[in-house]
């Protein structure tokens, strides 16, 4: 028992001593590299100081103090080329030999990022996925220049001594926020200071983002469904009990119940539309569509809604047939969503204008683009909301949106449709200056006659 206790106490002490030696060795290498890189500059300054002492009135003490301050400044300044110098003169010699080891071939074949380290923590080999994660990754550099998480560096330092694989999860904020799992495993049958180290990395960032999106979506959808359901249940219970014989209450409650049911219907329809779009996101549309036909149909269906809202709707057409490859119904839904938003949130008794422009290509070998802008003279949107407008259930004013029958999914549907059409949505808005939503689609040449077009005549 006494021998075991002494052994247990001795092992951590040896690890600390070994780690301190490694840190001191790296620090000495860094200082030497800085002095070496500034060698000629130091010599020039020394010559200048000696000249000033010999020819001028500068005292020897002041010259020595100035020279010492200059050397100290050289040592304290950050040095960007340490890694190159290490590679040139201070990197361990066995690196080249390890690159040709069978373990390098194994690391190269791994689908996940893999880095092979020397016992002192210097990069010996890495595969392509690791280079994709760390753009500055180079052989000969120390792993601490890439990953600075203390728990990871402790695992790397202890790996040759413990001989056991350790998994560490760490998070980084710069240059981009991400959460990684690093498995640090010493190589070799026996633990020892000469064992190489294998580092396998797994990036949890994308998985975390998807899980967060799924959680937010379920929470938002449940909340949006629960509100009209609770309202309907309350009215139904009232009509079944206290207002059972109250005809005036029944007449007052039924329109509200109908509106709540319509709100649920709109929400379910929007969710189904999003689901269909996501299923077909990888299948680009194949029909040829004339955007003038889409604009004409949008004007016919939206003018009565604009008149009911006491607003005016002006629709401009392209001067020539505007042919794009797309799905006519989905493109019509894009225009309807944008115009209905403009009518809902625009200025009372205001106007909504649809402008159509052809943007020619600067290259002779590429086609131009068609731009359709929906412009309103409403209160506008603050800049901080613009990047998030196409997120599901994101609203600038939640109460106003629900009051006006908005589902919070209209612009998300627009974004998904345009993604499928390889198009773009640009949003420009300033408070009190209205908003402009511009849809851009790639021009396409119709194959043969107009019989292939998906138009209203189909």
From TrEMBL:
Keyword NAD part of the UniProt annotation: no
Reactions catalysed according to its record: ATP + protein L-histidine = ADP + protein N-phospho-L-histidine
MF (Gene Ontology): ATP binding; phosphoprotein phosphatase activity; phosphorelay sensor kinase activity
Keywords: ATP-binding, Cell membrane, Kinase, Membrane, Nucleotide-binding, Phosphoprotein, Transferase, Transmembrane, Transmembrane helix, Two-component regulatory system
Protein name in UniProt: histidine kinase
Cell compartment(s), UniProt: Cell membrane
SUPFAM superfamilies, sorted: ATPase domain of HSP90 chaperone/DNA topoisomerase II/histidine kinase, Homodimeric domain of signal transducing histidine kinase
Top enzyme class: transferase
Entry EC number(s): 2.7.13.3
Origin superkingdom: Bacteria
BP terms from Gene Ontology: cellular response to phosphate starvation
Cross-referenced Gene3D superfamilies: 1.10.287.130, Histidine kinase-like ATPase, C-terminal domain
Entry's Gene Ontology cellular component terms: plasma membrane
Primary location class: membrane
Domain Histidine kinase: 220-445
Signal sequence region: none
Residues passing through the membrane, by range: 35-54
């Amino acid at each position: 028992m006494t021998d075991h206790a002494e052994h247990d106490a001795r092992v951590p002490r040896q690890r600390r001593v070994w780690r301190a030696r490694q840190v001191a060795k790296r620090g000495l290498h860094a200082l030497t590299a800085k002095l070496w890189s500034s060698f000629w500059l130091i010599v020039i300054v020394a010559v200048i100081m000696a000249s000033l002492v010999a020819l001028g009135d500068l005292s020897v003490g002041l010259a020595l103090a100035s020279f010492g301050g200059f050397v100290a400044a050289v040592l304290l300044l950050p040095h960007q080329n340490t890694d190159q110098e290490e590679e040139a003169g201070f990197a361990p010699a066995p690196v080249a030999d390890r690159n040709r080891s069978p373990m390098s071939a194994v690391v190269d074949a791994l689908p996940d990022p893999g880095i092979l380290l020397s016992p002192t923590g210097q990069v010996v080999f890495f595969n392509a996925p690791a280079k994709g994660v760390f753009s500055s990754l180079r052989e000969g550099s120390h792993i601490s220049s890439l990953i600075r998480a203390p728990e990871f560096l402790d695992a790397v330092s202890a790996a040759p001594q413990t001989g056991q694989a350790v998994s560490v999860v760490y998070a980084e904020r710069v240059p981009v926020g991400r959460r990684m799992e690093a498995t640090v495993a010493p190589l070799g049958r026996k633990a020892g200071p000469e064992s190489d180290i294998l580092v396998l990395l797994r990036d949890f960032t994308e998985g975390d983002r998807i899980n967060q999106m799924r959680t937010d979506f379920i929470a938002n959808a449940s909340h949006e469904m629960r509100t009209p359901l609770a309202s309907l249940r309350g009215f139904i219970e009232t009509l079944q009990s206290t207002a059972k014989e109250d005809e005036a209450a029944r007449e007052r409650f039924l329109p509200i119940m109908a509106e709540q049911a319509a709100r649920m219907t709109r929400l379910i329809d929007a969710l189904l539309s999003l689901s269909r779009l996501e299923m077909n996101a990888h299948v680009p549309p194949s029909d040829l569509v004339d955007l003038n036909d889409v604009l004409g149909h949008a004007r016919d269906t939206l003018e009565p809604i604009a008149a009911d809202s006491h607003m005016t709707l002006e629709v401009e057409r392209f001067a020539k047939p505007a042919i794009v490859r797309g799905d006519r119904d989905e493109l019509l839904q894009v225009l309807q969503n944008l115009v209905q938003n403009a009518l809902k949130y625009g200025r009372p008794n205001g106007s909504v204008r649809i402008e159509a422009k052809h943007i020619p290509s600067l290259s002779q070998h590429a086609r131009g683009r068609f731009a359709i802008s929906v412009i309103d003279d409403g209160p506008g949107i603050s800049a901080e909301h613009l990047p998030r407008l196409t997120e599901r259930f994101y609203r600038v004013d939640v109460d106003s949106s629900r009051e006006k029958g908005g589902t919070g999914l209209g612009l998300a549907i627009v974004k998904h449709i345009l993604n499928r059409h390889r198009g773009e949505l640009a949003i420009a808005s300033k408070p009190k200056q209205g908003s402009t939503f511009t849809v851009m689609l790639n021009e396409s040449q119709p194959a043969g006659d107009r019989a292939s077009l998906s138009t209203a005549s189909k």
